[in-house]
Write a structure and sequence with these properties.
Elements lengths: L1 H18 L9 E8 L3 E9 H9 L15 H15 E5 L2 E2 L3 E8 L2 E9 L7 E5 L10 E8 L2 E7 L5 E4 L4
């Protein structure tokens, strides 16, 4: 009986030790993709869902956000759009680019948020400021991928440098 109790306690301790890391992840990273087309830009942002929910929960009206169950359903889209617009700012040819929110989707343990913008001037210079989760997570890294036709650039942004600029658009 005593041996069985020790085995049970050992198994429970092992389970708690192994299961604890499943509730969090050891790295903090987001991916932002910005694609330029002739007179349109597409912005997609991928963030770990648990981190994103915590950040959304800090917004006015955002307590207890559940992206997977879409709760609170009335506010969820407006919270997602608000947070991304506050944290990811894009300027094209020195002018702010205003993105329309398309929607979000869950993909495994991450959330993708999608936006689109229209513009008239030929893109020549772009400036991206990405501060996603930087105030909440000190070691957060934000990867930005910028594409326009054959032109592709990527950069890792963090709290020391949250801006990517390019003068090489065609």
């Amino acid at each position: 009986m005593r041996k069985g109790l020790l085995v049970l306690l050992g198994w429970l301790l092992g389970w708690f030790i192994c299961a604890a890391p499943l509730n969090s992840h050891p790295y903090y990273i987001s991916v932002t993709e910005l694609h330029f087309f002739e007179q349109r830009a597409e912005l997609s942002v991928k963030i770990f869902t648990d981190d994103f929910e915590k950040a959304l929960g800090k917004l006015p009206g955002g307590s207890k956000v559940d992206l997977i169950r879409k709760l609170p359903s009335v506010q969820i889209d407006s919270l997602v759009a608000l947070y991304i617009r506050q944290q990811v700012k894009v300027a094209l040819n020195e002018r702010p680019l205003h993105f329309a929110y398309i929607g979000y989707e869950i993909q495994e343990d991450a959330t993708w948020a999608h936006f689109e913008a229209r513009f008239e001037a030929k893109p020549k210079r772009v400036r991206i400021e990405n501060t996603l989760l930087l105030t909440d997570i000190p070691n957060q890294q934000n990867i930005v991928h910028l594409t326009q036709g054959d032109y592709k650039r990527s950069r890792r942004l963090n709290s020391d440098n949250a801006i990517m600029e390019s003068n090489e658009l065609q």
